[in-house]
Amino acid sequence: MTVHPSLQPAIDAWTHSIEAISELVNPLVEGEWNRATECPGWSVRDVVSHVIGFECEMLGDPRPIHSLPRDLYHVNSEFARYVEVQVDVRRCHTAPEMTSELEYTIIRRSRQLRNEKRDPETLVRSPVGEVTLSRALTTRALDVWVHEQDLRRALDQPGNLDSPGAHITRDVLLKGLPGVVAQRAKAPANSAVVFDVTGPLEFMRTVRVDADGNGKLDASVSLGPAVTISLDWETYLRLAAGRVRRTAVADKVKIDGDQPLAEAILANFAITP
């Protein structure tokens, strides 16, 4: 166990999710690795490649020297190009090669995390630049759990929607909610928007917009909100992680109140890169 207990929840969540990914993909036959996921342009193999690649970078391994093809329609930014290198370099790998590399990476990374003695505020390298160790581990827990869910949907094997990774992901996504409501959707001053989320991970949160147009997250119930948006936790995740558009899950979202405001919120709901 790490000497800093504050890091342990993220490490435990990461461990739970990455081991779940390994269990999901180990029995897959070659063709199943090519199943499409909700990540644009990515198959099951590509999602696992992404997870392996980022964990290798956290281990300090050198990045692959690899030129991307020019016809990857989903690669539309420098960050996307950065991410895609670790994915594209493994597109020719067989199922046994993928599972072997995943297992070996899990062993190496687990050993590194067990021996982690740095202060949580230590700056470490990450794909988005230098961040604190605490933030890096939280981000890895979120990323691995979200991709576990991508794989589960692609393989039709639902589960772990209330796992430790789910709780960390919920808390991170909620931090972005005031910005979605106040800055992106331009909710009016002195208004409130309620999110009523059901399912394996239930919660209700209110975003209150003050007189200056700034949003603040509140766990208390609001009387007379401008709009209440009700949806299940998996749909909330898929929207917040940019996996689907509002129109694709229209039957899973209930809106009470200001319809145009709700539509503006849902159109700007994705907050993960």
How do the strands and helices of this protein lay out in sequence?
Blueprint: H1 8-25, H2 44-58, H3 78-88, H4 95-114, E1 123-126, E2 129-132, H5 133-155, H6 164-175, H7 177-184, E3 191-198, E4 203-209, E5 215-218, E6 227-232, H8 233-240, E7 253-257, H9 259-267
Parallel strand pairs: 3-6
Antiparallel strand pairs: 1-2, 3-4, 4-5, 6-7
Helix pairs in contact: 1-4, 1-5, 1-6, 2-3, 2-4, 2-5, 5-6
Please explain how this structure is put together.
The chain has two domains: 156 residues, dinb family like domain (Four Helix Bundle (Hemerythrin (Met), subunit A), Up-down Bundle), CATH 1.20.120.450; 92 residues, SCP2 sterol-binding domain (Nonspecific Lipid-transfer Protein, Chain A). The longest helix has 23 residues. The strands form two sheets. Strands 5-4-3-6-7 form a five-stranded mixed β-sheet. It is globular and about 55 Å long. The protein is α+β, with helices and mostly antiparallel strands. The mean pLDDT is 96. Helix content is 45%, strand content 14%. Keywords: Isomerase, Pyruvate. It comes from Streptomyces buecherae. One of its GO terms (molecular function) is isomerase activity. This is Maleylpyruvate isomerase family mycothiol-dependent enzyme.
